[in-house]
Amino acid sequence: MTRITAGLAGAPTEVDLVVVGLGITGAGVALDAATRGLTVLAVDAHDLAFGTSRWSSKLVHGGLRYLAHGQLGVAHESAVERGILMQVTAPHLTHAMPYVVPFGTAIGRVAAWCTRSGIRAGDVLRRGARTDAETLPGPRRLSATETLHEAPPLRRQGLRGSIMSWDGQLEDDARLVVTVARTAASQGAHVRTRARVLTASGTRVELRDELTGETRTVTARAVVNATGVWAGDLDDAVRLRPSRGTHLVLREGAVPGLHVAVFCPVPGEFNRYVMVLPQPDGTLYVGLTDEPVTGPVPDVPEPTDAEVDFLLGVVSAAMAHPVDRSHVVGAFAGLRPLLDTTHHDADASTADLSRRHAVLTGPTGMVTVVGGKLTTYRRMAEDAVDAALAASGLAARACRTRSLPLLGAADREVLAALEEPARLVRRFGTDAALVLDRARSVTGLDDDELLAPVAEGVPVTLAELVFGVTDEGAHDVDDLLDRRTRVGLVPVDRAACVSAAQRALDLAGRSVTRHR
Ligand SMILES: Cc1cc2nc3c(=O)[nH]c(=O)nc-3n(C[C@H](O)[C@H](O)[C@H](O)COP(=O)(O)OP(=O)(O)OC[C@H]3O[C@@H](n4cnc5c(N)ncnc54)[C@H](O)[C@@H]3O)c2cc1C
After folding, report:
1. Phi, psi torsion values for 292, nearest 5 degrees
2. 241 CA distance to ligand 1 middle (Å)
3. With left for phi above 0 and alpha for psi between -120 and 50, is residue 320 left, alpha or beta?
4. Residue 13: Cβ within 10 Å count
5. Which of 15, 29, 211, 348 suits 187 as a labelling partner, its CA being 20 to 30 A distant?
6. In angstroms, what is the span from residue 354 Cα to ligand 1's centroid?
7. Residue 23 Cα to ligand 1 middle (Å)
8. Ligand 1 mutation pick, 77, 374, 483, max ligand atoms within 8 A of CB
9. Confidence band (pLDDT; 50, 70, 90) for 348?
10. Residues 16-40: pLDDT tens digits?
11. How far is the CA of 6 from the centre of ligand 1 (A)?
């Protein structure tokens, strides 16, 4: 079953490449390197998707933001990677998300014109990236009446119309990470959680098994540091200026009848929006903020009261009925790993820091890859492995991840025809059958029990929790509730699911132990 396990027991002590960090970047590097024929050990101090990668807006962006800053090359790269994810590597984990930008009292006519032009330019990027209109339809202008038809909860007064367009949305960010890691493992990579790198150079890492406390050294021809906001801990020369982005979680009923995303203009600011993002599980996210952060990097960043008030204020200004704290069922914050290119100007806004990824080769030959985003992970991984090969002199095959579907991927028509429950298909694609088969054989339970929601109002099933343990390296209740599924984003739901997660660990754990 799984080649993703916790701790270092049985892990190799000599490999071609060690990857430190299993967020989207490190998982992508492990996959890239394994598919080039290298032997790979990929480790995380905590769990898959423990860091920033699980706190995103879950969008597959087409590069609009870069366009607004005149960075055409980066914008094109983003649009190309979005197309690859949606059409080739992960159609099962991505879908088209319609959104409207309402033109009401919060946005002037000039700003509305700029927004429309920007979104149209974004569509030119889409076509330039060869993403077809079936995958992502082009934008269109809507009258006030049409806007209210698409987004009924919007405030009528002062609404002049809107522009509607489409971008990519992920089923779930952590699920993308887990799937990339599982694909890397299926290509031969050794993937270990609870394995912290204490020190690293271009040819060796000192690791601590966080389960046993034992330390060991692993030698490698190349080492890639993909530890996101923690990258500076392993290489002093890497300087980051993290910025916190906060989201709120609302239940569907907080903004009733909203099925498209809404980008609410921030009153008094040019080209800044707060997004209301309907999620596949029925919740809505409201985000996001951009707050510079100083001091030690926490394991789990916390939203501030001021951020919560700001987000609620902007959304309430756009909606017919105010959204207040009583509607908020969860909140989460993530730190953007932005490379500090502005040491000379301590006051520079984090919004001005480069959002493009950077690949840096240190004096010992260790390669650090930081920045970027979920959308461009594949390209980041390709660049990082190229740099690691150049630094080490290792020979390997050319990158092939551009055309390599992740586990469970298939054409949208094939996915639509699958007979397994829709939730499993959305989260595992063609592997939905494997998830169910595994859960049946490991537990001996029938489908009614395996596919029933594990708690009232929570769509998670026992089948996927069991698969999390058998095939996705989940080691404890936190892994299952906070990363293999995302019940943890709503604390009251999480509390209701703890016993189900524990049951899955008991049922599947025995089987995993037997197979080791
Ligand atoms: C609020 C917010 C919203 C965003 N929204 C989007 C979006 O919608 N779409 C998009 O494309 N991008 C988005 N991004 C950007 C994207 O989420 C990040 O760029 C990306 O997740 C960074 O991934 P990473 O793998 O580099 O870092 P991380 O996910 O942080 O992974 C680093 C990993 O390294 C591990 N680690 C650290 N130190 C050690 C050590 N010493 N030994 C072993 N392991 C270690 C950590 O445990 C962690 O798991 C968003 C970012 C933020 C903050």
Report:
1. -60, 145
2. 14
3. alpha
4. 12
5. 211
6. 16
7. 5
8. 374
9. very low
10. 999 999 999 999 999 999 999 999 9
11. 20
pLDDT at 484: 98
Q: How, if at all, do strands 215-225 and 14-20 pair?
A: parallel
Q: Which uninterrupted H or E stretch holds 163?
A: strand 161-170
How many residues make up the chain in this entry?
Answer: 516
pTM tops 0.85, yes or no: yes
The one-letter code for the residue type at 415 is L
Write the CB contacts of 271 (distance below 8 Å, at least 6 apart in sequence).
68, 111, 114, 115, 118
Crossing angle, helix 24-35 and helix 173-186, to 10 degrees? 20
Is the confidence at residue 346, as pLDDT, over 50? no
Q: 51 C-alpha vs ligand 1 centroid, how far in Å?
A: 5
Using CA atoms, how far apart are residues 159 and 145, in angstroms rounded to an integer? 9
In this structure, are residues 283 and 275 in contact, taking their beta carbons and an 8 Å threshold?
no
| Atom 18 of ligand 1, residue of closest alpha carbon | 373
For residues 260-271, give the mean pLDDT.
Answer: 93
Burial (CB count <10 Å: 0-12, 13-18, 19+), residue 80: buried
The ligand 1 atom nearest the CA atom of 370: 26
| Ligand 1: nearest atom to the Cα of 46 | 47
| β-bridge mates for residue 335, sequence order | 244
pLDDT at 176: 98
Within 350-494, strands assigned E span: 358-361, 367-370, 453-455, 458-461
Decide if pLDDT at 349 tops 50: no
CA distances from 71 to 66, 74, 152, 167 (A): 5, 6, 35, 19
CA of 415 to the centre of ligand 1 (A): 29
Digit-coded pLDDT (tens) for 135-190: 999 999 999 999 999 999 999 999 999 999 999 999 999 999 999 999 999 999 99
- Atom index in ligand 1 nearest the CA of residue 43 equals 43
Q: What is the pLDDT of residue 510?
A: 64
Ligand 1: lining residues by beta carbon, under 6 Å? 20-26, 43-46, 50-53, 55-59, 61, 196-197, 226-230, 233, 245, 288, 334-337, 372-375
- Buried-state track 244-254, b at ≥16 Cβ within 10 A, e below 16: bbbbbbbeeeb
Structural element, H or E, at residue 273: strand 273-278
Contact call for residues 420 and 432 (beta carbons, < 8 A): yes
Ligand 1 atom showing the smallest separation from residue 234 Cα: 41
Q: What is the pLDDT of residue 66?
A: 82
Can you tell me which atom of ligand 1 is nearest the CA of 245? 1
Q: Retrieve residue 466's tokens.
A: 């069991």
Sign of CA dihedral 94, 403, 181, 380: negative
Between the CA of 22 and the centroid of ligand 1 the distance, in Å, is: 9
34-66 pLDDT, tens digit per residue, is: 999 999 999 999 999 999 999 999 999 988 878
